[in-house]
Amino acid sequence: MTSPFRFTSPEPAVETKGSTAAVHAQITRDFGIEGALPFVALSAAPDLMAGAWALMRESLLSGHASRTEKELVTYGVSLANRCPFCVGAHTLLLYAGGDRELAGALARGERPDSPEHERLLAWGQDMRGPVPFAADEAPEFVGSALAFHFINRIVSALIDEEAVSGGADPVELLDSTAGQALVRAVRGRPEPGLSLPLLGTEGPQPAWAAGTPVGAAFGALRSAAHAGAGLLAEEDATFVRESVAAWDGFTPLPLTGDGLPDRAERPGARLALLAARAPYRITAEDVQAWRVEPFTDHCLVHLVAFGAMLAVERVEAGLLGAARV
User: Fold this and answer.
1) DSSP state, residue 129
2) How many Å apart are CA 226 and CA 310, to the nearest integer?
3) Which of 19, 63, 134, 188 has the highest local Cβ count within 10 Å?
4) Which one of 37, 79, 86, 145 is the catalytic residue?
5) Cα–Cα distance between 176 and 169 in angstroms, integer?
6) Rounded CA gap, 322 and 66, in Å?
7) Structure pTM?
8) CA dihedral 147, 152, 155, 157 (to 10 degrees)
9) With contact defined as beta carbons under 8 Å apart, do 88 and 79 qualify?
């Protein structure tokens, strides 16, 4: 069987132990998917895996806001980031939640009929506009959107999307035993905060979610991801930070040769910058140029996460500059 992972060889979820196994167990229970690929892809770096899971769980799965509305936002984010695997996943999750007409329309490439739903999807695609939710719902909506700005990049960089996307009829899939587990999970509402004991790091909480489980999860993921900067020379880390800061955070254009570091001369900076701005353009040659001894799967995942988090922070800065949340 061909591996769905492009550049790493993570352990299957059922073979993991310790903290990684505990995260997988909670994902299976609360997300309804055993061995969810984005989290398996991160499992070589358990602190990143736990942080990404906690942010998604506490914002998208838990809380009081409508799951349908949050799924529309994350669908929009995934469209903007050109992540077909995640677009398909959110469509399936809408089906599982009972929104079959809406999910079917999106699967056909149509926009929502409801003006409210259209505003949510459009905001997910470009978060610089007016926020389409109440101020007290910001931790859930902003957290969900930023979680998938991170997860989209992990998926595009580390998973073979063509090998795992499309094909299955969602209605038939949801009638299976695994599909029924997904339906139960999507229609449930997990207790807030239960992912936080799984976190291996902590960091400053963002103003838009301070004092909430979402804020704790975001701070932990950000801290874990920034550890990846230590894999680069200081001048390369600075270059990547400045390059991402100069980007608008939303323009859906891949990098051209201009401003992209040479693969032979600065492979780490090239990988991190691609992870931030165009993760779907990372090639085996890019990875091979950087991944020499002593670098491991753990290191590659951390370097990709560093670039991904810089992009998340750039999107967050654009959001905060456009509107108060």
Assistant:
1) S
2) 8
3) 63
4) 86
5) 11
6) 24
7) 0.96
8) -120
9) no
Name the token pair of 75.
């669908």
Report the alpha-carbon distance of residue 45 to residue 306 in Å, rounded.
12
Q: Report the chain's terminal Cα–Cα distance, integer Å.
A: 46
Give the pLDDT band (50/70/90) at residue 163: confident
The tokens describing 269, both together, are: 């900076």
Tell me: the pLDDT tens digits for 277-314?
Answer: 999 999 999 999 999 999 999 999 999 999 999 999 99
Long-range contacts formed by 133-137: CB under 8 A, 24+ apart: 133/65, 133/69, 135/325, 137/63, 137/64, 137/65
Amino acid at 94: L
Find tokens 């736990």 and name the residue: 50
Contact 125, 77 (CB under 8 A): yes
Give CA–CA dist 91/95, Å, rounded. 6
Q: Which of 157, 161, 126, 106 is nearest to 318 (CA)?
A: 126
- Measured in whole angstroms, the distance separating CA 236 from the mean position of its chain's CA atoms is 24
Q: Specify the 3-state DSSP secondary structure of 159.
A: strand
Token pair belonging to 177: 């035993």
Is 299 catalytic? The answer is no
